[in-house]
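User: Show me sequence and structure for the first protein, then do the same for the second.

Assistant: Starting with the first protein.
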Amino acid sequence: MKYLIYILLAFSLLITWVGCEKYADDYKKYLNEEEIIYPGLARDVRSKAGYLRAVLVWNPSPDPNIDHYMVYWNNNNNSQRVEATTHSPSDSIMASIPNLDEYVYSFSIVAYDSEGNVSVGQELNNIRVYGATYQAVLQNRAYRMSDPYETYEDGSLKLFFNAPDTLNTGTEIKYTNRDEEEKTVILLPGNNEITIPDFKFGTTLQYRSGYVPEPNAADTIYTLSWETFPTILHIVEADKSFFRPLYLPNDAGDAWGWVLPNLWNGNTTSDQGFHTDGIGMPISFSLDIGMESSISSVRLWQRYSGRYNGGNPKQFEVWGSNDPASDGSWDSWTKLGTFTNVKPSGLPGGQNSEIDDTTAAAGELYAFDEPTAPVRYLRFRVLEVWNGDYLHLSQLSVYKLGE
């Protein structure tokens, strides 16, 4: 009986083996007796943000039989062929997909070999394409409102801008040079100022800023429009070698050996300038700047040892004339502007912060609303000082329209 069971078991195994042998190759009739071959896959598939386009990048498969790649999107309704120009995994293949809408896309990359075999598709999802909606929110880099530019005797111009957004790539500045040529320079995001040596004064200067929507983006996207920089005048410092004191009745005299001409000797750091007696407010003094000039601003340096204190001016007026009356009356003078000195820190008198000292040491600029009509003589009328009934100043500069 036991031997019969062994014989039946062996017979069953034989039948099973024969059956398997019979059907093992049946799948081949569905493949036309050919083996399925899948080309190698691309590596490190990635994307770069673009303007109305997507840029796809990958390292190619080392499979030498790959002939090209196909990129599919929009549910495979759109495609683009990309030739396999290299098979080295250390190289990169780039595909730019143009004419897209501002939207979020999914792409599939499929490799084809020279015999028509197809790889498994590789997906890239959530690829954002940027366009006019993103561009509309971009703003040009802001210029420095308090002091947007400086000009120099050699005719050069320096522009000042605030720090930019972190995705700013640069600001294009378009201007006309002295040869009537249109030129463009770039202010890089790491710089807050730029010098233009050949600007033609009296012409318009425009600028626009560029941004990348994402780090490592393929495209720089610029603001929708150019912005016009404030009117640029050729401002130069008046030559102090022409300055002369103008002593008029009713003006304050010198005291303590601090004479009026000290105000234009160029020394801003010594504790000796112009000083008056304690005669009460208002206190006036006058000077001849040597030639008729359109004045744009004045800069005052306070007494070095008494910043925002003592007889340093707190509120004052500037007057101008071309033919001042010899009797010291004000009828022949025109008021050009009224200014107030503001202490940056707001601390009480005698207490100065670092910014107070830094501001005063640089000299404080007081600009007129616009350049004045040409005047040769200036008269300062001090209405209030920080503390006391006398006036003292270290230095004075005058800025005018250059030629």
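Switching to the second protein now.
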Amino acid sequence: MTSTLKVFVARLVGLVVLGPDGESMGRVRDVVVSMYLPGQRPRALGLAVELTTRRRIFVPMSRVTNIDADAVTLTTGRVNLRRLHLRPNEALAVGQILESQVHTDDPDHPGLHDSALVVVDMEIERSQRLDWVISRVALRTTRKGPLRRRGETVVVPWHHVRGLTRLNLNRPGHGVELALTQFEGMRPADVAGVLRELPDHRRDELAAALDNERLADVLQEMSTDEQTAALAALKPSRAADVLEAMDPDDVADLLGELPAAEAEALLARMDPEESEPVRRLLLHSPDTAGGVMTPEPIIVSAGATVSEALARVANPDIPSATATMVFVVRPPTSTPTGKFLGAVHMQALLREPPANLVAGILDADVPRLGPDDSLEVMTRFFATYNLVLAPVVDDDAHLLGAVAVDDLLDAVLPRDWREQEPEGEL
């Protein structure tokens, strides 16, 4: 028996979920509700729990043994680790129902009978049959009335709310603002995981609402199939803007999966300065160093100072693996560069006086890859030299780019590795 028999769903969000052994397994992110049961109150079927691995799973409410101010505790037994997937009659309380427009015929609030109201929270209650059902709904007024202030909140019994059981959760714009608020502060990979769980129309709607930079970061954490689907839902001009905000190697991987005419149309819409590195990458096979590399590593000339190199490394937009090494070349310093002279490791930069030249701490013998090296060669390379970043240099000693170990992992892992379910149960 749970110590709490009633709770508002917004209060549950963010609570730690404890297993029967008292160890934290994740946090509550939403409540899954069954919406379409004629003649019955909608039931709270379970919790959408985000594991410490960032995967979201479904935990049935029957597994909940205690809810207190800080945590939700589960009973003994198995928890399936398969990713959360909603059935056609199910909805996410926070992600889909809150911010819905409804009406009320509650006799205690006659002044609201003709008012447009918005759902701001829902109370779930444990019934005598041990099911969790929606008992009350918190509503906010959307316009000022003769006796009411705009933005005032009232709580009414579920059976006096009209329109919620037949909510058109597919309608454009529904709850987008609330969802975007939830995304604030989340890592792109976590946002990608959330979008992956939503119906196609909802995912496309939220993707369209993200700004170009944010959407680009999220797309880079998706599989190529998911990227192409998301791109297809955008207008061509918007799609080109998002591609410009992505890393060139990710754009090349994505466009390489599209029909040639479609890929060329998108490249033509991009700024030539942004599309040119992508075109160079597309000349290489995707299973070679030239196809996996980023053409935009950190590059300086031999005359650069340590402080200048560190300023480049400190750029928050530079991926962590890319920031481990600064490449030194003769002009030009954009790829393909002049003669490749070597590299300076970040640790070496941190030990040097800021005014010193990078040429004085140059590692001229840093191991390097060729643009035609295979995935197997690259895998052995990183295992041998214990590096996280490797320069890609052609036969004429021009630096073409760099391969980061995370880009290599993306290339060697199964195509759908982001979507694969873990084995076993918790």
